[in-house]
Specification:
The complex is a heterodimer of chains A (about 375) and B (about 230).
Chain A lengths: L1 E9 L2 E9 L4 E5 L6 H9 L6 E6 L2 E5 L4 E2 L2 H4 L1 E4 L11 H9 L11 H7 L15 H14 L4 E5 L7 H18 L3 E5 L2 H7 L2 E6 L2 E7 H5 L5 H4 L5 E12 L4 E6 L2 E6 L8 E7 L3 E4 L10 E10 L6 E8 L2 E8 H7 L6 E6 L24
Parallel strand pairs in A: 3-9, 3-10, 7-8, 8-9
Antiparallel strand pairs in A: 1-2, 1-4, 4-5, 5-6, 10-11, 12-13, 12-15, 13-14, 16-20, 17-18, 17-20, 18-19
Helix pairs in contact in A: 3-5, 5-6
Chain B lengths: L5 H34 L5 H13 L2 H12 L4 H10 L7 H25 L3 H9 L4 H30 L2 H6 L10 H10 L4 H33 L2
Chain lengths: ~375, ~230
Amino acid sequence: MLEVAVEKRLGAFRVDAKFSCETSGIVALFGRSGAGKTTLVNMLAGLLRPDAGRIVVDGTVLFDSERGLDVPPERRRLGYVFQEGRLFPHLSVRANLTYGLRRVVPAERRIEFDQIVALLGLEALLERRPRDLSGGEKQRVALGRALLANPRLLLLDEPLAALDQPRKEEILPFIERLRDEFAIPIVYVSHAMPEIVRLADTMVLMSEGRVEAVGPLDELTSRLDLRPLTGRYEAGAVLTARVEGQDEAFALTELSFAGGRLLVPRLELPRGTELRLRIRARDIALALERPQRTSFLNAVPCIVRDIGAEDGPLVDLRLDAGGAALWARVTRRSLEALGLAPGTAVYALIKAVSIDRYSLGRSSGAGRFLSETE
Amino acid sequence: MPGFSPLELEALALSLRVALWSVLFSLPVGLFIAWLLARHEFFGKGALNAVVHLPLVLPPVVVGYLLLVLLGREGPLGQALYRLFGVSLPFTWQGAALAAAVMAFPLMVRAMRLSLENVDRRLEAAARTLGARPFDVFVTVTLPLTAPGILVGALLGFARSLGEFGATITFAANIPGETRTLPLALFSMTQTPGGETQALRLAALSVLLSLAALAVSEYTARRLRARIDG
């Protein structure tokens, strides 16, 4: 359990963040650049002192201005992976990794050196210097170094932001393994929705120094009122689905979710596997009747729940598909032509290929199994 | 330059001893002052900075004279030192080392302060989150990253001490075998009729010594920097 209520003024910028959430799995701290995410994480880590407030992690009070309590960073036992790695340039990779480990009393060591080196694939790097590492390798070492300090919670501050897409793909599976194999709670700071959708269970949404919303990821991404913060381009619904079967002849996989069934390009996953999907609003078209003779493979019956109040040619609608939320983006003209209003029954037409490849990360490395076909 | 004369060897050995002690004494003090100036804001910081830099701008003779006033047998500090420990610094090689140290101090502090200011504070923050207490961070992160600067400071101090003349002759006088370092011996030779050859030999010796010190420090600094640069 993470309980935070902090205030901090930095010049004209003010952070006033209050939230509490469970720390199981990955908690995403999401917001645009300048929303105060790093400031908040620095306060959690003890690198920045709040003007007032309270920070409690799993029952341990780390900061309480009323009681005059401020646990120094070295005793908070929060692992911190920085955007820029911050490896010690004068130490070898091995010495970097053991820096935190050597400062943990043996009785409290739950995470061991060999274990982390194997998990993160660092064997070949141990005698190297940080300057001889690639960006991705540096972040892997930084991750290992933070883990070996045996933290009670891991803070990842945009650990992928400085990396290009292939390097991101190199690191993401490791973060998924941390979540799945170590059961170590993680606070993951990012302004990249695809990363968050792939990794997180809970989202803390920040804007202009304030926490705007806290809750399960699926719920927050399907709330129209938060749309200005989650981003228009990124608009979409996150669904949990299950593999039901394979269509060998056409190389398709059948999935089920609360709203019905979906056909997607073949996934090399066993039947019953749970995975997460992201369907972007712009990839859903609407029809009033079940369309005949169409190339759309997936037509899911839904009820219109909410209509966005955006100006301009495009409008977003929130749909209810058997309890699961879907979003559709249509033109204002279509909205009027079809006479759509809250309560209207429609069919959501989803292109099979529109299922976000990047989002299939729930089971280890599933993203790599999806054969991409048009 | 065939074989050194006893006079030359004596002056050389004394110069090395004085310069070494000068550096050994001012290194820890200088590092502490450099750290104060680089990392802290406090009342009187400007004044401290000015005092540290004073020997750089004052005529060395003035520094030597002030030391004499302060530490002479009749001076307030000198009196106390003599009564408590039976120590008297003027006209001794320890006095020469002190005069050299005072003159070298600003150079050392400047080099070390610059180096401390260049240390990435974010690395120190990272070390804190990994469980290191502030002093631990200083020893395991800050100090190794400052090492080239400390070395450069030490060399500058050493070279400055080797060449110290004005403050030394004023405070410690020119006593053969006790305070007559290379520059003082050279000066004495120029005052002695027929001493030109000897003066030239001493000058050459000074040049050799300085070049050797420079070479050693360049080599070490480069190796240190190669180890550190990320």
